[in-house]
Amino acid sequence: MSLLEIRDLVYEANAQRPERILDGLSLSVERDEVHALIGTNGTGKSTLASVIMGCEGYAPASGDVIFVGRSLAGLRVHERARLGITMAWQEPARFEGISVSQYLSLRGDSGEPARYLELVGLSVQRYGNRMVDRSLSGGERKRIELASLLALKPKLAVLDEPDSGIDMLSMQDIINVIGAFKQSGSAVLLITHREEVAMIADRASQLCGGRIICSGNPEKVAEHYKARHCDICTGRECHYV
Amino acid sequence: MSELEELTACFGSAGGDVLALGDAGSAHLAASGHRILSSRTVEGLVVDAREIADGISAKVTVQAGVRLEKPVHMCFGVLHKEGTQKIEMDIRLEEGSAAQFIAHCLFPKAEKVRHIMDATISIGEGAEMRYSETHYHGLSGGVEVVPKAVVSIGRGGRYFTDFTLTTGRVGKLDLDYTVEAAEDAVTEMAARVFGHGRDDIHIRDRVMLAGMNARGLIKTRVAIEDDATAEVTGITEGNAAGARGHVDCMEIVKDRAVARAIPIVQVNDPGAKVTHEASIGSVDKRQMETLMAHGLSPEQAVDIIVKGILK
Fold it and tell me: Cβ separation of A98 and B297 shorter than 8 Å?
C-alpha cells in the first residue's frame, strides 16, 4: 500500500464557471520516498499541495486522496496533520509575538529547537528568541518553517517550491533538508519547477494541464521536461524553456 | 490586610515587580483611589505627589543629565467595587536625562469604577522616556478607563510608550494620546487591547512630526470578540523635511464584534513621508492553516495568533 495515493483527482477553481485546474490527476508517494513534482507555473502544482493538505476552498470535485489506506475526504487541515501529513507553503505565514523556539514546539512537546534549527543551517543562539514575524528575511522564514516541519516528524511532508521566490534556498540547503527528512523516516513530496532540484528525488512526476504526463526515474522525467514532448499542450506551456 | 498590602498583592498578580516596591534603590508611587499609599524617590528624581480635592496630582521631574538605572514603578488602582480615580500627572524629563516608567493600573473587583488619567509629558533635548502601562481588570466589565496624554519631545529626544489591556474585561476605554516631535526626535506608540462581552474600545493616537527628520510609529493591536466594539484612529502628520511616520493597525474580530480603523496620514512638507497599513477581519486564513498543518485545532490556532499579536 502506498503512503499517499491520489486517484483521478479533479479540482475546479469555480463551481459557477468550472475550469479544471486538476484534471483526473493520479499520483502515488511511497513510504520513505522523495517524490519530486515538476512543472512550470500554472500547471497545478500548488493547487495539488493545497488539495492534499485539505485547505479551505480546495475540496476536489471528484476523485480521492488516500493516506495510509484511508480516504481524507471531509478531513480538515489539522485532522490530516494529526494523521501525519504536513506542508510548507511557498511563502510561509508570519506570526507576531511567537518566538522561533516556541514555533518549533507548537504542539506542546518540549522539542529540540536547537537540533532542528541546526539541520536547516541556523543556530538557536541567534534565532531562538527572534520572532517569526516580518523581521525575518524570506530565506530565514523558509528555513524556520522547514525546521518546524522536521520537528513534527511527519509521515509525509509536502514542500511547495522551497527553491523559488526572492529568498530561495540554495541547492545544498535543499539537499540537506531532504536528507534530514529521509533520516527521520519522512516521505517528501517536493514541488519544484527546476529539473536540477527534481534530480535529488527518488522518483519524479511531471505535471501539465492538471495531469501527470510523465513519471518515473528523475533523470528520465527531467529529460522529458526539457524535450517538449507533451500531448496536452504540445510543449507550449508545460516544458522547460 | 491593609490597603497597601492588598494593592501590592494585586500588583504582583498583575505581573508587577513587588520587590521593587521595597527596594530602596527603586522609585515608586502607589495610590488607591484618591489616597497615596506609598512613594519613594531616588537621587535625580523629584516627585511631588499630593492628594487634591478630586484626585491625585503628581509632578515628576527627572533632572538634567540623570539617567535612572532602575525603572520607576507606578501602581494605581481602585480595589473596591465602586469608585473613581483621577490622576493628574506632569512628567518632565530634563535635557539629556533618561528614565523608564512601569505603570500598573489595577481594578480587580470593579463594577462601577472610573479611572481618569490626564498626563502632560515634556521630554527635553536628547532625553529619553520609556513608559509602559499595563491594566489588570476584573471580569464584570464595569470599568471606564480614560487615559489622556499630551507629549512634547524636544530635539533629539525619544519617547516610547506601550499600553496593554488584555487581562479581564476592558469595560469602556477611551485612550487619547497626542505627541509632538521636534527635530530628530523619535516616538513609538503601541497599544494592545483584548475586548470581550460588550466592551467598548476607542483608541486615538496622534503624532505630529514637527521637526526635520523626526520619526514616529503608531502600532495598534486589538482583538475583540462577543459583542465588543472597537474604533482605532491613528493620525500621523509629517510637517517637516525628512520626517518619517508610519501607522500600523491590526484588528482581529470574532463573533458579533465590530471594529473600525481610521488611519489618517497628512503631509505638509514635500520632504516628509508618512505611510499606513490597517487590517481588520477574522484571523488570517494562511496563518490559521499553517498552524493547523502543525496539528493544532482551529481553536488552538486562533488562540495562539490572538495571544501573539497582543503580546
Answer: no
